[in-house]
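Hey, sorry to bother you again with one of my protein questions. A protein chain has come my way and I'm curious about its shape. It would help a lot if you went through both lines with me. I owe you a coffee for this, so here goes:
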Amino acid sequence: MAGRFAQAFAPGALLMGAAAVARSSDFSAKLDSRWDFAKPEVSEARFQDALRQYAANSREALEIATQVARAQGLQRRFDAAHATLDRVEPGLERVDVRVRIRFLLERGRVFNSSGTPARAVPLFRQAAEVAKRAGRDGDAFYEIDALHMLGIAAPPAERLVWNERALEVAEGAADPRARGWLASLYHNVGWTLFERGEQGKALEYWEKALHAREAAGDTSRLHVARWTVARGYRALRRLDDAERLQLRLAEEGRKSGEEDGYVYEELAEIAVARGERAAAAPWAAKAYALLREDAWLAATEPARLKRLAELGSGKPPAKAK
């Protein structure tokens, strides 16, 4: 998942007493627990409510505001997100360095999500450097966050290196929150390898991510982990395995009332891979009905929506002229 806003690291922030450091770390973790990434509008409302509990321009209010901006960015309200961060920036020099790290991360994420990753990369690099230099309990979590964002936003040739560096920090961390990044990092390394055409290696990492989610009892993210493993199966032409896993996810979604258009899209593509275009049509139609309102997909991959509409119509593909 902005050089002009990047601030120099403030060494004075490291002179905080031990009790203040503990409070800083605890506050950040509690703040993060308010997130529901599947519902950024709900998360924004939670953070706005939390803002009202603290004095304006306090360390707590400024950190909360960085997460308001993140929620706005996830809703593709990029101007609003930048405006929120503009209000945070003037207070960075006088508060805990954690707020600076989170400001850099969120400014970078807004630039990356709005289609200007070159402006995001320097911010993520600085966030990683500041977090590493701070070196306190809890800072490794945000260092890994910055490194993993570099694995997304950096030029393709550099992404695997950044993801591997993030893995190294996570594997060596004592902080359970930092080690909690491992499943996400396995997932991201897998996608980087997949995009390089190394589907077999990608699947190995996705299976590691799935095992990590299962071991942690992370039921909220098991769905994505299983979907991704099934996507790897399809890429390797293990179509029966892919279909079996996607059908399981489709049935779980039907029972819970939370159907996933991306599952239906995969079931359509599995049918197409078998040469069964007629069998793909109902799956594609269901996928299109759910995904046509997906703002991220419409903005970033409109061709996928067009393909689903065509497959769902049941008509033969148009011949190239």
In short: The chain is about 75% helix and 0% strand. Confidence is low (pLDDT under 50) at residues 1-23. The radius of gyration is 21 Å.
